[in-house]
Write a structure and sequence with these properties.
single chain; globular; binds nicotinamide-adenine-dinucleotide; binds glycine
């Protein structure tokens, strides 16, 4: 692998490049040259990331009119109200339909700014400049945008693809350790859902990721984006295969919203959710117990939580029933037959799910 990688996400006229590597925001013309010519820019970030990386991003946008929109930090602010803040900023800056929104930050900023771009004047272009590991391996790629609702995670949103993703790995230098670990959860997800060799690589290299070794991080980001780009290229609107990217998420989203947005980081909830999915797969699909143990061990070594909060089985089920994969009232889950082989299915006894939730999360709230 070279220091800088360029992948493509192939979606016909909505295809776009993903650039991965160090120093990309300092590379002359890369960001601004990737945007439609001459367009004004609304740079959206939050109160944590803008002071750290806003000046670098603005320098990379030299020659454009740039207005800034600074959001409050945190999952608790991934709301319709914060979406309104971005839309107000676009109106106040007199941005026209040919403007471009640049999302500088983690998945929360990217999801809100992307959704604002999808809505403003019925849709304007946007670029993703992800600054967390989670956003670089997952949320900046694939065009899912949106906000949370008190009744469920990411319930309001739109599919809207960015025109470019620029993952400058230097930005990870200021990322808190806990956030890095949350990103590693989504990296592990890719191995579990579709690449047993990559899972094996992670078992050997998770320590290097935790130490932020650039070569290891670069490889993990590239492999994750390759897998995501290929899946989204085949199933942009999640009619089938794309749902596999939600491994651990039906349980995880229930944990995130049930515990109160922000108490559990998204990646932490996905970690505990993946282990619940694995244990359930052992019970109803014959996933070997050794695979469950390997996943648990890797998550623990990555410093991730593996035991869900005691929300109570009834509350957890209620939240899981709001999942976007529910069809005809049945909760469809991403389960595993072995590490590297996942399947979306509702073919399991509902009582088995209730039993698992009662054991893992308690009988009552
Ligand atoms: P986040 O956006 O909340 O960022 C985590 C924290 O790190 C925040 O406090 C942020 O301000 C801070 N931060 C970001 N970059 C930093 C940097 N370089 N240095 C220092 N601090 C920095 O969380 P996240 O984990 O990036 O994203 C989680 C969100 O992404 C969830 O809302 C989840 O639903 C969403 N998501 C979306 C998709 C998708 O396909 N759209 C996929 C996965 C997750
Ligand atoms: N993070 C799941 C998806 O993009 O489909």
């Amino acid at each position: 692998m070279t220091d800088t990688d360029r992948l493509n996400i192939d979606l016909g006229e909505r295809s776009y490049p993903i650039h991965i590597g160090p120093g990309l925001l300092g590379q002359p013309g890369l960001l601004t040259g990737s945007l439609p010519g001459g367009a004004d820019v609304m740079l959206v970030s939050n109160e944590t990331v803008m002071p750290l990386w806003g000046a670098r991003a603005e320098a990379a946008l030299a020659g454009r009119r740039v207005a800034r929109c600074v959001l409050p930090d945190g999952e608790a602010h991934k709301t319709m109200a914060t979406l309104g803040v971005v839309l107000d900023a676009l109106v106040e800056a007199r941005m026209n339909r040919d403007c471009i929104v640049v999302a500088l930050g983690g998945g929360v900023v990217g999801d809100i700014a992307g959704f604002a771009a999808a809505c403003y004047q019925r849709g304007v272009a946007y670029a993703q400049v992800p600054t967390t590991l989670l956003a670089q391996v997952d949320s900046s790629v694939g065009g899912k945008t949106g906000v949370n609702h008190p009744g469920g995670k990411n319930l309001i949103g739109a599919f809207h693809q960015p025109v470019v993703v620029i993952a400058d790995t230097d930005t990870l230098g200021t990322l808190p350790d806990r956030e890095l670990r949350a990103g590693i959860a989504e990296v592990i997800k890719y191995g579990v859902l579709g690449d047993a060799d990559f899972f094996g690589w992670l078992e050997h290299n998770v320590g290097r990721l935790l130490q932020r070794e650039p070569k290891a991080l670069g490889y993990a980001i590239r492999r994750s984006c390759e897998m995501k780009a290929a899946i989204v290229g085949r199933d942009e609107r999640e009619q089938g295969e794309r749902a596999l990217l939600n491994l651990g998420h039906t349980f995880g989203h229930a944990i995130e919203s049930g515990a109160g947005y922000g108490a559990w980081l998204h990646g932490e909830a996905v970690a505990a959710g993946m282990l619940l999915a694995a244990e359930f797969s052992r019970r109803v699909r014959g996933l070997p117990g050794v695979d469950v143990a390997r996943l648990r061990d890797l998550l623990v070594r990555a410093g991730l939580p593996v035991d869900p909060p005691r929300l109570g089985a009834a509350r957890a089920l209620e939240l899981m029933r709001m999942d976007k994969k529910v069809k005809a009232g049945r909760i469809r889950l991403v389960l595993m037959d072995r590490i590297g082989e996942a399947i979306l299915t509702d073919d399991y006894p509902p009582a088995a799910l209730e039993g698992l939730l009662a054991e893992a999360m308690g009988e009552a709230a």
